[in-house]
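In this section we walk through a basic example: taking a raw amino acid sequence and producing a predicted 3D structure, encoded as discrete structure tokens. The instruction is simple. Fold the sequence below.
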Amino acid sequence: MLNTEKLQPKIKNMQYKMLVLDMDDTLLTDDHKISDLNKKAILEAQAKGVYVVLASGRPTIAMIEYAKELELDVNDSYIISFNGAIITRVKENLDFFEQKLTVEQIHDLYDYSVKMKTDIITYLDNEIISETDSEYIEVEKEITKMAHRKVANFKEYVNRPSVKCILLEEPSYLKQVEGDLKQAMPHLSVAMSKPFFLEAAQQGIDKAASLSLLAEKLGIHQSEIIAVGNAGNDLTMIEYAGLGVWVDNVNSELRDRADLIVASNNDDGVAEVVQKYILN
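The resulting token sequence is shown next.
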């Protein structure tokens, strides 16, 4: 059921021009699929001229097939990957924005992970790079379908910039690490994407920052944007958008940080917001 109480004055007579969707645990069901109802609603929104943009912590390569399933290539739209580090025009598979961590920053994050006893991964050449195995790295492999290269020496192997790192550990402990990392490295953008994924990117990189760049490119005001998400790495875009929406499976501490809450990722929450605020 929609929580529209605080939202009504904000959306009165608004014509939305862009719909921005987080993927895992928002658009996708728990088995990583787009439901028929969500797909139908998204295609109808695009038929009305609304830009649909996927914005995810996922690598670009792990988003392209979903984007094409939703016809973002046909409709000349975009994806925001790596939590905002890259913006790609789907039609041409062309990046028009990219911001990476330096090698020094990646090595500092590695040293921090060793100190805090977490696993750490980064990405090079469309592979997941780590020095260790863990159940949480297995989750990332399953989500992204990317190859995993386990290396003998992380710092020796990672000798060029990469878009982000992820620290991985048991959720209750990783939540403590999040606060510590934000203090230890205030020059980085740090956010949780899953309870066991703590993501670190270049300073100023997040979904809202890249969404703002894209909206400016397309001549769309932030008040004309709907953003839908479920986790901490979605918060900046939820607060940036004219209409910020959580699906019902949102992390409990974030529930009051959006304009409304719709059904969960397994119950067509995306279709619910599209039908009510775009298709009317």
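Looking at the output, two observations stand out. Residues 221 and 240 are 11 Å apart (CA to CA). Residues 1-9 have pLDDT under 50 and may be disordered. In the next section we compare this with other chains.
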